[in-house]
Amino acid sequence: MMSLTSDKPAPRRAASRRWRDRLLLAALLVLVGAGLAGLAGATGWAESWAQIRGLSNAQVAGLLGLSALNYLLRAGRWHLLARRLGVPVGPGQSLRHYLGGFAMSVTPGRVGEFVRMRWIARETGWAAERAAPLALMDRAGDLAAMAGLMGLSVALAAGGVRGAVPVAALGFALAVMATRPRLLAGAITLAHRALGRAPRLFARARGAARLLTRFSHGPTLTVALLLGLAGWFAEGVAFHLLLGWMGAEIPLWRAVAIFLFATLAGGLTGAPGGLGGAEAAMVALLSLEGVGLEISVPATAVIRLTTLWFAIAIGLVAFPLAERAAGKAQVSR
């Protein structure tokens, strides 16, 4: 019988995957840059650049501040869920782990963010699969908050952005499945039967899914949802303010709906950080609202810089701190 594993040594396979991921990310960045440049060129570089230069330092600081508020609120949710799971970490550790994970936001499928499990394992002795439900609940929390907020924003936006409804429904459905242990374990079993390989990996995944019962606590889930709602609403407000500063008078809830739809749509493509999909959706939706390319293109570029790329910048600062702290904790244990 032919072996299912590659003949390459493990280190070589890992190196090959890293290079493949880097090339994929580089290609996506080139495509996004080329697309935005092409759109800006269609309206004239001068108009797009003038819109960006027209922002004051205070306005840029406001955008970054609202993004930072989002990250801090979601880090608080991470700590709340970690303590509910029983992970023996303090607020400072949770903040370090959460922000440091942002450095891996643009890995394919954002699987790189599971580095947080590695830090927890090294600092507390918990096995990575034992802490894995924490990452799953964090992602489910984002999906539930974004889906709920987008549904509310569509309802309050007087029927605007109707296409957001199915995306919100899909995001909410995924969040529900991710927080139902039996349903998720069943989906994992079906995937294993379909693929017919890696039984040990699927067994661990089923074990992690069963641990989700720890989160079946009404007050914890309520606070976690509220933190997520407040965090993502802050970034939606930032997008609304940015559009106003650039001369596009889009109502608050419609701007929030556009921002969340584009972010979710980009994430559902599976591309690292939603690159390409989020930008295309944002420009298209703004165009449907009557916003010209001379505003929609620079607005999209700025909001992505002050949200996704700002998070990555924070992650790159926090990552070595988290790695160093985890290393010291492992040595001392």
UniProtKB/TrEMBL annotation:
Superkingdom, taxonomy of origin: Bacteria
Keyword Membrane: yes
InterPro entries recorded: L-PG_synthase/AglD (IPR022791)
Topology with respect to the bilayer: Multi-pass membrane protein
Family annotation (Pfam families): LPG_synthase_TM
Entry keyword set: Cell membrane, Membrane, Transmembrane, Transmembrane helix
Protein's cellular compartments: Cell membrane
Primary localisation category: membrane
Spans through the membrane: 52-73, 143-176, 221-243, 255-275, 295-319
Name of this chain's protein: TIGR00374 family protein
Organism in which the protein naturally occurs: Rhodobacter xanthinilyticus
